[in-house]
Design goal:
By secondary structure, this protein is of the alpha/beta class. It has helices at 2-18, 90-97, 127-133, 148-158, 164-177, 181-184, 197-210, 227-240, 253-259, 277-282, 287-293; strands at 50-61, 64-75, 79-83, 107-115, 118-119, 134-137, 215-219, 245-249, 262-267, 270-276. It has a six-stranded mixed sheet, with helices on both faces. Strands 2-1-4-5 form a four-stranded antiparallel sheet, with helices on one face. β9 and β10 (270-276) form a beta hairpin. α1 (2-18) crosses α3, α4 (148-158) packs across α5 and α5 (164-177) crosses α7 (197-210). The structure holds adenosine-5'-triphosphate and magnesium ion (MG). Magnesium ion is lined by residues 90-91, 219, 249.
């Protein structure tokens, strides 16, 4: 049941993308500041439907417990920042959402995680399809040793898309959304490894966007970048939140404050506090949160 529904939704999108000019990917982003259904408070994303729910999640690596009773709701078309000191479980939680932890031996998860109300860990869920819906960008950019074009087209080719015009169009749209088009358009067929670090990271974002995910998980996507590239990634996140549900791990308090609507603070595998980003930074309810965001801790 569950996998069929997931497969159908995903397949519908691919079919739509394949079926003609009127169903092309929209190539114009909504203007900044346009948040549907939140006219009075443009940053109150709790009015958006829940996209991901984490309900009493516990996770063990072998005998070592890394997450403890984590409860978290992530609303669609929002940016949630996961913050906290090294080793507190941010990446672990992120990886639960697209089941990347399945790839690690000895991981055991209890509790419930849902995407649009569907149990992510139901035995019928097809993980490949889930990962198309929930894309991921890593701290270290990892372009394939292929051309820029083929990096972005990679996921589509795996899905069997052969139509050259469609591939061209989706590659261009994805590179534009990732704010890389102008820098890459004249070298699409050159190796992606010739791009700078910041460009490679935006390429990886374009690659993640090309298969039309609904959720984008970003694990410290700008930590290795210079301030200009970082600003580009932050602008990009600002634009993408109109369309995608984004969960970003960051060690930069400034970055969390700049890009996110909601912030979740973790300590030793426990979600200490979650709330509107400005509230977490200006009026945290827990002493541990205050110590962390003011730099007295960690
Ligand atoms: N593959 C693994 N095998 C065993 N233990 C792991 C594994 N990955 C993470 N852990 C442990 O789980 C805990 C949480 O790690 P995690 O990587 O989620 O932290 P983090 O908050 O992302 O830290 P950082 O900010 O350093 O990236 C740590 O104690 C870590 O050592
Ligand atoms: Mg991490």
């Amino acid at each position: 049941m569950v996998n069929l529904r997931m497969a159908n939704e995903s397949q519908n999108r691919i079919d739509a993308a394949l079926s003609g000019p009127e169903t092309r990917l929209p190539d114009v982003l909504p203007t900044k500041g346009h948040v549907i259904g939140a006219a009075q408070d443009p940053r109150d994303v709790t009015k958006h439907a829940p996209k991901i729910r984490v309900d009493k999640a516990n996770l063990w690596y072998g005998a070592k417990q890394a997450l403890f009773d984590v409860d978290l709701t992530i609303h669609e078309r929002s940016v949630t920042a996961l913050i906290g000191p090294s080793g507190c479980g941010k990446s672990t939680l992120l990886r639960c959402i697209n089941r990347m932890n399945d790839l690690i031996d000895g991981v055991r998860i209890e509790g419930k995680l849902t995407l649009d109300g569907e149990d992510l860990y139901h035995r019928d869920v097809e993980v490949e399809i889930l990962r198309r819906r929930v894309g991921m960008v890593f701290q270290k950019s990892n372009p394939f040793p292929k051309s820029i074009f083929e990096n972005v087209a990679y996921g589509l080719r795996i899905q069997g898309v052969k139509n050259r015009a469609l591939l061209d169009e989706i590659v261009e749209t994805s590179l534009r959304r990732a704010a890389l088009w102008d820098e890459a358009k004249d070298r699409l067929h050159e190796s992606a490894l010739g791009l700078s670090g910041g460009q490679q990271q935006r390429l990886c974002i374009a690659r993640a966007l090309a298969t039309s995910p609904e959720v984008l998980l970003m694990d410290e996507p700008a930590s290795a970048l210079d301030p200009i590239s970082t600003a580009k990634i932050e602008d990009l996140i600002h634009d993408l939140r109109e369309r995608y549900t984004i969960v970003i791990v960051t060690h930069s308090m400034h970055q969390a404050a700049r890009v996110s609507d909601r912030t979740a603070f973790f300590l030793n595998g426990v979600l200490v506090e979650e709330g509107k980003t400005d509230q977490i930074f200006t009026n945290p309810q827990r002493k541990e949160t205050e110590d962390y965001v003011t730099g007295r801790f960690g």
